[in-house]
Amino acid sequence: MTDIMAELTWRDAINQVIDEDGLKKLTQEKAISLYCGVDPTGSSLHIGHLIPFMVLKRFQLAGHHPVIVIGGGTGAIGDPSGKNSERKLQTMDQVQANKDHLTAQMVKLFGTDNFTIVDNYDWLSKLSLLDFLRDYGKLFNVNTMLNKEIVASRLEVGISYTEFTYQILQSIDFLHLYKYNDVQLQVGGADQWGNITAGTDLIHRQEGADAKVFGLTIPLMLKADGTKFGKTAGGAVWLDPERTTPYEFYQFWLNQDDRDVVRYLKYFTFLSHAEIEDLAKEVAAAPEKREAQRRLAQEVTKFVHGEQAVVEAEHISKALFSGDVTDLTAEEIEQGFRDVPSVDVTADKANIVQWLVDTKIEPSKRQAREDVTNGAITVNGQRIREVDFELDPKAAFDGRFVIVRRGKKRYFLARVK
């Protein structure tokens, strides 16, 4: 079988491992089942979730069996990891709606072959309080739990008993999956180390010290400037195309720093070692071409949204760069012009000068006439030079939009109502 551990090491995808030699030996001997959990605290995954999922996907491509736990049970409690305050509890209806959305996104990433999705509500909800305390609470030492980073970091500001017990619930997940799904490895972010080791300890207490179970965490992903990966001025970069369009998603990867791009190619793409090394040479020799960033954007967008999304994103990018927007579809305009200033307009025809003032694209008729006369105004890709030009809002893009460009780069979008 593929030496998955060597592959992960080359791609800088390993932070900490429980018994690395044992895990390497096991994965070379047979196909294993491994899992990662995600709580349904929102209706969409973001690219931060891709960090552990990329590892699961590599295991899947190497012939192993990934299991995703969508935490319908733990999601009702709240994971204290990475938080400096209590999470707000969600209604069970909201948890269910989020689970449905996340399940669909998981299937898109992992397919349905050699892949399993489970919900820990199915087993955690059946635990009575007495069973929880007798069967599991007795096996956890409070002093040990207090020393785990996920709890210790919260002691000054306080942590509820509810969130304090989260590591026990996650440990029960690992035990359940070990017994009923033959799962031997848990994968998580760097902040999950305490939860993962608690799980392996529980399995060894329940199933015996010779039980072959392992944990693996992913390095904290930081950008070259020291800031957290995955955040933009507009917030998180979502996998849901309604929240972050495929064009915006593509642009996020295209705009990565030269200092980060090779590391991201290793981590977030399935390109071969040779292809990535060639792109690294391109970065060193001709960084202005941004060939590595383009390939990164293509590969990750294809993985998350599909090949057609890449075609559309590049079509939009080319149109915006050249100013020739005439070939864009209305759907591509929805993607590419989401962040430009926009205004609602009627479908009535109007004089271009008056229309520019009414939409506040121009501050005054004098300025509007001057810009039109100087050729600084293009409408739907056509340069307008006549001050008596009659604009028809329904003339292009299925009658839904008017795109105005003032100067070389300032775009405005009018939505026809």
Automatic annotation (TrEMBL):
ATP binds at K231. Residues 332-413 form the Tyrosine--tRNA ligase SYY-like C-terminal domain. The keyword Protein biosynthesis applies. Its EC number is 6.1.1.1. GO terms for molecular function: tyrosine-tRNA ligase activity. Keywords: Aminoacyl-tRNA synthetase, ATP-binding, Cytoplasm, Ligase, Nucleotide-binding, Protein biosynthesis, RNA-binding. L-tyrosine binds at Y35, Y166, Q170. Belongs to the class-I aminoacyl-tRNA synthetase family. TyrS type 1 subfamily. Homodimer. This is Tyrosine--tRNA ligase.
